[in-house]
Amino acid sequence: MKAKCKGENYLGNKDAQVLIYDTTLRDGAQGEGISFSLDDKLKIAQKLDYLGVAYIEGGWPGSNPKDLEFFKRIREYELHHARIAAFSSTRKAGMRVSKDSNIKALLEAGVQTATIVGKTWDFHVVRALETTLEENLNMIRDSILFLKEKGLELIFDAEHFFDGYCHNPDYALQVLGTAAEAGADWIVLCDTNGGMMPWQVADAVQEVRRSIHVPLGIHAHNDSGCAVSNSLMAVYSGCEQVQGTMNSYGERCGNADLCSVIPNLELKMNCLCLPPDHLQRLTEVSHYVAEIANMPSPNNQPFVGYGAFAHKGGIHVSALLKDSGTYEHINPEKVGNHRRVLVSELSGLSNLLYKAKELNLDINSYDAETRRVMKEIKELENEGFQFEGADASLELLLRKAFGQHADFFQLNNLKIIIEKQEDNHSTAEAVIKVTVGEQTFHTAAEGEGPVNALDNSLRKALTEVYPEVADMHLADYKVRVLNGKEGTAAKVRVLIDSADPYSKWSTVGVSENIIEASWQALVDSINYLLFKRKISGEDSEN
């Protein structure tokens, strides 16, 4: 019998629709270190619509003025794929639903879709709400009936459903039945504490489907590291909506990462989540949201991480040269990412050959020069250079070795003066002499520190001949001490990220002198810019 390895959705066929409900702007904003401004939320909403999700939860209009303003402002934008949903809770215990401030704010948001959360775990009803189990059912019933009478699509988030089902399944199912009878369009099962295992989720969803005939969704938190797995298992067992956030943002350990959920559903489980060809926008949107959130994008994030398709081991790269399927579970372009081959002390000739192929360098794998270059790279890495994070420096090294590049300028002299003043303010001045062709430039410039002064002075010297240098800027500057036991005499590695209006690149320098290491990385950065501009100019002429 042939093994069944291709995943299927719960219908057992292709092309089942699973709607993606993005709650980055509400649940994701509750993550530590994340604070979206109103403009941030509007930008992210447009980007999520560009991705093609079905729902964008804009926030809780009853909780703060910013969220209420978001719902007013978002009406000014034309969305092509997503419906805007507003979040709220059921009416308060002992209060008429029409008088509840949260419900009134929900209506004021002016949305077509409302999501309300209600307690499913009897423990929470008694301890958190301090009311009776019967009153909790009334709160859910009244709220749904009231909002449905207003013509809204109603999504009921069954908070703590799985915990409630484990402790008191009869009551948990009674809550769902009440929501269904009141007219909820969706019932979303929430693993609010994030502690469930995938088999527990599967068993519970299958049981719910036997008695509840309203479409189901899943809302999983990641406290046990299972949010993505639980979401996929819920779909496999019968859910047709997945709630989650971009990049797993959310309270505590975060929510289910839609950047993993969506491609797994589409590529591994034959489900339709996004419009055709929109999956390839995923990496772009993930990084965009991370940039707006001012959060680092994890290098090893599945599917969309910068290192998700990065290959370092020589054996791996040797196989990749023959067939990318040997060490990649999907084609990275399907999610908008790309393959990267790293060159380091762990590399073999295969890595160098792959990199050379990317750069259109004609390299003979048995050539003595090729082996010499590989040996040089490994020696440099042994000294502390790290080319896997500095592709621009590696490309320049390879092009120099094979006669395709020469530096655009040479240093004659460099002097840096640091002055400490009485008011504790310090200044730095860099005096530099460089040669470009037959011209020599002697300049001086001040800066906030020695590296800034060095950068300013070098730019000042070069812009007369190379005006394009003014287009670039340093995007990031990192220093790593390589042998801390040496104290202030330790060797350091400097990594510089540079950017112009068209691209970004990274360079590296290593020395016991931080100024020298910075100079190496800075020189590579400018040389790389000039080389790329020269190549693009030659291409345009041709």
Give structural notes.
The strands form five sheets. An eight-stranded parallel beta barrel has the order 2-3-4-5-6-7-8-9, surrounded by eight helices. A three-stranded antiparallel β-sheet has the order 13-14-15, with helices on one face. It has helices at 38-51, 65-73, 101-108, 122-127, 133-149, 161-167, 169-182, 198-211, 227-237, 258-268, 282-293, 314-322, 349-358, 368-383, 391-401, 450-462, 514-541; strands at residues 16-17, 19-22, 55-59, 83-89, 113-119, 153-159, 186-191, 216-220, 241-244, 271-272, 310-311, 340-341, 410-420, 426-436, 439-447, 473-481, 492-499, 504-511. It has four domains: 16-293, Aldolase class I (TIM Barrel), CATH 3.20.20.70; 310-383, no CATH class; 409-465, 2-Layer Sandwich (Double Stranded RNA Binding Domain); 467-542, Double Stranded RNA Binding Domain (2-Layer Sandwich), CATH 3.30.160.340. It is α/β, with parallel strands linked by helices and 542 residues long. The radius of gyration is 29 Å and the shape is elongated.
Which structural traits does this protein have?
542 residues, 18 strands, elongated, 20% strand, alpha/beta, 3-stranded antiparallel beta sheet, 39% helix
